[in-house]
Each structure stands twice: as structure tokens, then as C-alpha cells.
Amino acid sequence: MKDADGTTAKQNKIEIKDFAFTPQTLTVKSGETVTWINRDEEPHTVVSVEKQFKKSTALDTDQKFTITAGAPGTYTYFCSVHPKMTGTIVVVKS
Amino acid sequence: MSEYISHDHEHDGIDRRGFLKCMAWAGTGLLWTISGGVLTSKTLAQIAKAGAPLTATDLAFLQISDSHIGFSKDANKDVTETFKIALDRINAMPTPPSFLIHTGDITQLSKPEEFDTFDQLLKSCRTKDVFFVPGEHDVLNDGGKLYRERYLKNVEGKGSGWYSFNKNGVHFIGLVNVLDLQAGGLGQLGDEQLEWLESDVKGLGSSTPIVVFAHIPLWAVYPQWGWGTSDSERALGYLKRFGSVTVLNGHIHQVLQKVEGNVTFHTAMSTAFPQPAPGTAASPGPMKVPAEKLRSLLGLTNVEYKQGRTALAVVDSNLS
């Protein structure tokens, strides 16, 4: 993924550990990717509350899920298996 | 605390206050039960030695939970082995239970091959009649479709898989609280299921013993870890008038018990791996213990109903 001046767009990471998304709030630019990686021994999912992006399958340990950040806005999500786990992605203009 | 018996409903020489006083001594997680007016605790090994068969009017069944077939990490590298040990214990009972109730998390990742392995292992059990409710691990990718195709064959499942049935005059209700969970929330039953529950028990006499089973606890064990059901109070409201209600849950992989009026809440051990006690770890995930200790933290629950008594006798035993 490249932006206007030809350099590679930033790849943002969220770690799923101890039944929490870290960082819980992440700010990214439109068009950048966001990758979740599960470091727990429990499977987790990533589900957009407002269905703003396609939901992940159940991620086992060390499995990843990636989306491309869309239009600017606030994207809240949670784990549908352990719904107490919530997170937010704030997308700003690139 | 008074040493006098003030309320002897069962006419067995024990009142609730005295029972709870004795419960405070138990501590170890082994449940003390009332039988013929005498407080006793039993392991399955002791039941095997005693050898007394049950009379025809009694009812004995067994709760098994959280087998997590497919799990293979530090906390237990072979969950099929510990599941087999649990089944061997059932088979060794002098009178096998009439049926089993599995309170969910049959598999680890809802995979067809995991369900297949479970079904294959279960064939070795002498008790063939098994009732299920799903755990969140059984409905990961398809809203529970595969689970329902396999595990509702002996019941009339409604909606996402709830149902009821009767055995020896005891009314059993299987509830599903692991689907359509809301962000930031707990387990959930939902309006459709709650309306069904209300009508399901409407025509029953209040002296009918009720057994409710669901995966996630139907009481607020530890909401911070999601160990509770947001709309369970509504369900319990429909059961308030009954003289004996026993609630059997899984999900937390440890025995916890609460008595509230006529309702006894009980959670079972897993046959796969233990989890930490509420608030004692960063999160509720699988808890690794020394290998020699593992089987003492896994187990089964024997439940007996005797005609003429109100409360069911609930006895936990471990796999060591």
C-alpha cells in the first residue's frame, strides 16, 4: 500500500492480550492498514459495532486480522466472544 | 449464631441457617449435601464404594462442562485425555447417571473435526442420553448453526437452541446465553427466549422442581470478566414462585455456589483446564498449574433428586 509520494503507507498494530485490545484507542490515517494480532491463549474476534468493516473470523493464538482504514470518523469495535473487550479506531484525514 | 433449629421445612433436623453455617466450613470447593438429615460430602470414589443403587423414583444425572476439544496449550496439552478420564469415572459409578447435561464449550474453536472428536469420545460413555447447551466456543463462526444440527436431536430446540423436558416429575430448561452478545456486555438471553421461558413454566405447579442450565452463569459472579448474564434477573423472576430451583452453569471452570431463597446456583469445573478465581489474575484465560495438580482442578458434578425433598443434592468431584 503506497501513498501519494510513493512511500509505503504506515501499518498500524493492535495487540490482543489479557482479554484487552492494546492500545484501546488508536488514531490512524485514512488508507492506512490496521492489524490485530491475538497473543492470548483464548480465541477472540474483531467486530465493528456499527458494521463499518467486515468482521473477523475467530482468531486463534498468533493469528492476525487486517483492515484498511476508511473515511475519517470513529470506529468502535468489540470481541463478540468476550463482549467486555472493546476498542476504538479514530480515522483522520490522510 | 443460634444453635436452635428455627425452620425445619424438610423435617430432616437441619435448617437453612445451620446448613449455611456448615457450608462456611467446607472451604475446599467440595460441596456438602444433606442426605437423610446428615451433612455429608462424597467423592465419586466413595459413591463407588458404597454401592447402593438408587430407587426407581429417584433421579440422578451428571453435569459435565467445558471439554474444549481442540485446545492444546500449556494449561493442558491433551484435553481429550482428561475428558476420557472423566468418562471413565462416570462408567465406574455403580449406578450410572440417567443422563448427562453438558453446559457448553464442547469444542475450542467450533470446528467440525473438534465436534467429531468429541462425539467419538462420548460414545464410550455408558450413559447415552445427553443434553447440551452451547458455550461461546461452540458458536464462533456461524451463529450456532453447526452446533444446532448436531446437538438438538433429542429435544425440541427453539430459536438459537433453547428447550425444556421433564424427567421423573422434574422440569429441565436449557437456555442459550452466548449469542448476539452486545459490545461491553455480559451473557444475554434475549426477549424471544425470555418470552418462551415465561410461557414454558406458566402451567407448572409451584412444587415442581426446576433445573435450569446455561453456559454463562445466570448470576453476577464477576461482571468485570463477563461472568454474568445481563437479563438473567428477568428469567429468575419467572421462576420465583417455585419451591426448588437449581441453576447449573459452566464457563468459569471452577466450582462456585450460591443459595438465594429457593434457588441454588452452581458452576462446574471443566474437564479441560482451570481458570483463575475472580479477580486473582489479569484476565480469565486458561490457568497453568503444576502437572501433578491439574486433575485435582478438573471434574464432574453429580446431581440427585429424591422424591419428597425440595433441594437437589449437588456433589462435585475432581479427576485426581
Largest interface: A-B, 23 and 24 residues
CATH fold call of the largest domain in chain B: Purple Acid Phosphatase, chain A, domain 2
Terminal CA distance of chain A: 13 Å
Beta-strand share of residues of chain B: 15-25%
Number of strands of chain B: 13
Order of helices and strands of chain B: HEEHEHEHEHEEHEHEEEHEE
Adjacency order of strands in the biggest sheet of chain A: 2-1-4-6
Determine the N-to-C terminus distance of chain B. 36 Å
Rg of chain B computed from alpha carbons, rounded to a whole number of angstroms: 19 Å
Instruction: Specify the CATH architecture of chain A.
Output: Sandwich
Q: How many strands, which pairing sense, and closed or not: the largest β-sheet of chain B?
A: 6 strands, mixed
CATH A-level architecture of the largest domain in chain B: 4-Layer Sandwich
- The tally of structural domains of chain A comes to 1
